[in-house]
Amino acid sequence: MPSPSPANRRANPPADAPLRLAVFGDSHYACVRAAEGRVDLAGLDVEYWGHVGRRFKFLTWADGAIRATDDQTALRFAKFNDKGRTSLPAREFDAILFVGCRLYLTPIFLLVGQARADGQLLSGALIDRLILDRLTGTPTWDFAVQTARLGTRVLISPPSFPTEGGEHGWEALFPDGSALLPDDRALVWDRVQAVMAGSGVTLIPQPADTVAAGATTWLAFATDSHATTGDAEHKNADYGALVWRDALAALRGAV
Fold it and tell me: CATH number of the domain that 143 lies in?
């Protein structure tokens, strides 16, 4: 993808100006927000803009910003932003980190594992097609692409793999998805990275030190309520700190 036009960047920022970073997410971003105090955010001006996933169906892209389609949703997002923003204008940030944002990739990993269990290996081209189809079927992917086109750096940390031992809802579709091998997992991440890079987006894969067998996450990263609620989807601040670690490495490596 061509480099963003200089006209879309901050005009001659002072040498000591902080990098303006927005963290945009659904309920998955809670772990990142909870971990803020555990990481060194020197040189960054961080804002959060997000809400629970069911509100995301009331978001759209218009006039260079992620916007709510109704006033109630706008106010819900504003409530959790320190500046009370009712929209997320891309040009006001140097980078936006998408966390969760309904961009579920776990089914692709499980499909690759199921194929292995069935004695089949999926080609890289087919995996690319599956990834692209999944991304383009999710409105937040379009938000990411549109943001990148305006010259704002975009990083995506997809929803994590389900916590080991928990139910995730895909068991019926992929009963043997756990046959996924580490090499299979690495291949899928490589293909996701390539597909996203083709649209100017940087992937932040699930931190390798959080991944258990197959496409699952170690129990140590489950939320405190996991034992009582069975929530296998969301993760704790320990997980969020590792997402920060990898996202900051990507950001600072490009500054």
Answer: 3.40.50
37-43 long-range Cβ contacts below 8 angstroms, 24+ apart: 38/237, 38/241, 38/244, 39/241, 39/244, 39/245, 39/248, 40/248, 41/248, 43/18, 43/19, 43/252, 43/255
Give how many domains the chain has, as a whole number.
Answer: 1
Neighbours of 107 (CB within 10 A): 18
Domain membership of residue 160 (yes or no) is yes
> What CA–CA distance (Å, rounded) separates 56 from 69?
10
Task: Name which of 87, 90, 74 is nearest 145 in CA terms.
Answer: 90
pTM of the complete model beyond 0.85: yes
**How confident is the model over 175-192, as pLDDT tens digits?**
999 999 999 999 999 999
| Domain containing residue 208 | 17-254
The tens digit of pLDDT for each residue in 113-170 reads 999 999 999 999 999 999 999 999 999 999 999 999 999 999 999 999 999 988 878 8
Q: How far apart are CA 169 and CA 161, in angstroms?
A: 12
Is 9 contained in some domain?
A: no
HSE-up of residue 56 (Cα within 13 Å, Cβ side): 23
Residue 8 resides in a domain: no
